[in-house]
Amino acid sequence: xxxxxxxxxxxxxxxxxxxxxxxxxxxxxxxxxxxxxxxxxxxxxxxxxxxxxxxxxxxxxxxxxxxxxxxxxxxxxxxxxxxxxxxxxxxxxxxxxxxxxxxxxxxxxxxxxxxxxxxxxxxxxxxxxxxxxxxxxxxxxxxxxxxxxxxxxxxxxxxxxxxxxxxxxxxxxxxxxxxxxxxxxxxxxxxxxxxxxxxxxxxxxxxxxxxxxxxxxxxxxxxxxxxxxxxxxxxxxxxxxxxxxxxxxxxxxxxxxxxxxxxxxxxxxxxxxxxxxxxxxxxxxxxxxxxxxxxxxxxxxxxxxxxxxxxxxxxxxxxxxxxxxxxxxxxxxxxxxxxxxxxxxxxxxxxxxxxxxxxxxxxxxxxxxxxxxxxxxxxxxxxxxxxxxxxxxxxxxxxxxxxxx
Amino acid sequence: xxxxxxxxxxxxxxxxxxxxxxxxxxxxxxxxxxxxxxxxxxxxxxxxxxxxxxxxxxxxxxxxxxxxxxxxxxxxxxxxxxxxxxxxxxxxxxxxxxxxxxxxxxxxxxxxxxxxxxxxxxxxxxxxxxxxxxxxxxxxxxxxxxxxxxxxxxxxxxxxxxxxxxxxxxxxxxxxxxxxxxxxxxxxxxxxxxxxxxxxxxxxxxxxxxxxxxxxxxxxxxxxxxxxxxxxxxxxxxxxxxxxxxxxxxxxxxxxxxxxxxxxxxxxxxxxxxxxxxxxxxxxxxxxxxxxxxxxxxxxxxxxxxxxxxxxxxxxxxxxxxxxxxxxxxxxxxxxxxxxxxxxxxxxxxxxxxxxxxxxxxxxxxxxxxxxxxxxxxxxxxxxxxxxxxxxxxxxxxxxxxxxxxxxxxxxxxxxxxxxxxxxxxxxxxxxxxxxxxxx
Lengths: 405, 440
Known about the structure:
Chain A has eleven helices and twelve strands. By secondary structure, chain A is of the alpha+beta class.
């Protein structure tokens, strides 16, 4: 490394040029570490399991507008028809879909004395006895809902069910001692509207992916008739989903007096709900790619140009006995020096940028290991970018030194 | 002279095509990325109704749970009103010039003939909506107070729906079928899309299309047409009453309320009125929290509701840094290029060109790169906005390249290029011709 000195002194002769690249690398480090952090956060949100058999689940939503149709009977007919389709494992009516962005939230009280600030918030889903199987939930304790427990919730009657199934997360939140099964909770304060917990299932998310307690959910045996909207969830055999969606849509469209609003796979629904996060992931990925390209190409361009400028000097060095490897090494070391200066500034930049984004927009604290990772990536980028012009420099013949321009 | 410099610039750029392409591409990418996020941000944070945004006020009352944390600002209070409070204010003799009480609903439109039925969103509102928000009419007119009182089966429809159902003809006097009921069309409004859709900024709905059907609020409630949008309740509802009746009397919030207040004095008087109303309600046993009433004008209301998302702000900041990197990159490349031009400059200087002439000539070259970069940037911005449109649902009104922004984009690029080029150009015009002509 005894040529470090001359390289450094040469750099000092073009301080501004070197500083410009260093600054560019500093900003690049600041932006890519923060963008990569945003990507990883969003990606881990999107990857959380909803609890459903995601690839094999389909959603059907229809709206009835003919007031002469008996909605309760239509529900029964639809469910019978959907369950009879080949490839269907189970189907249920439901009033909102987990991780769909819109649904029902509620609170319950574990004692009649509890006040509303202590009550426990959860996502509520109205299903029938096939709900558990359709949603692909595993019953950890207790029993399933029974057909005779179904109640109707509509503008005419707001019957409240007597029993419910809850998720393990909700059970743990309400009864930390693990004895939730068989307990009675109250939907209203002062011990009103008691509900018995008859079963506890493993895991299901509520309707709002960014809510605080996304895995506290409850299934109640009921059918909702608030207006004409009717929603079904269907779970299929592996590989049968698309065929079931087509057959189901064909069946629903035969009925006059209603329209088919939505026939959608659960995966598509999840992509839509997480649209903002997926967009952020894609935009941040583009930013990282474009930054790497601009910075990398910038280094190539500058080095290429500097090789052209120094042809005569390089030829002279070669004539004085420098090997091709010495020439390549010169450019690599030069780049490494500039990049290192840039990265030193960039670490401060990355931490400041993260501090700003976190204070202003609560993006979270950047884990420190992003810094060495980003630095390693940029060192590598710099070395790769400079390699091509450096090899070109190495091919300059020593004879060039003897030629005049 | 300019043309000559331009020709020289183009010739110089052709001599170093890769370097020039890199500069134009880098500038273009930077400008394109920044313009994309800036366009979205600009349209999101735009004033949706500039000539009236200072006199239209969203009304908030606090009927909420006494056990909730204390209120510090309008953000901590429910953005919507209960049915009863909205109706009480609407029907009272308040100091406001106009008031409107409304909610979002929807129904299935059943066309005559063989066309399939389809879903439409509906705005159920009291009659002054149209005058208050300056809604342009194509045919007919809005309804009046009388129609609100009579709970009339009438409707104002949007231009898009009128095109669909009546091929764009004047449909006043015709009727439309919503679910099982007929409504007489009394007016057709022209295209009207305030961005953001300030009068109802439900979560996710801030940039939604305006509704295509407007009905008297009282008529929609008679039906009843249920609310589509957030409905929040904290207190149990009265189970001895029929469900809809109990819902209307409940502490559930789901309606929007606005007041038009022409002067600060009127606004102050209206605020006093609201405070007194809240005190009366407290006396009657409602409103268990401390006295919290809020009036926010349109722009303040957009702020309260966080209409511009944090993601958009983060994107804007990062794309600005990206632009900065691209400019730095271009400065570096320009420096390299211009320092390499020493020989040519020396020759021109020796032939009698003044320092100023060399400076101007090179500035023209830098400016040309700026213009090319700007135009490339506009192309990238267009692509970027198409990408944003596919990535985000409901951004259809936020991805149009504004003509003013186009000029700004190209201008920005030229300024960036000239700033980037000023130092190298100045350096090169300072070179001593004699020294350079001798060596090399």
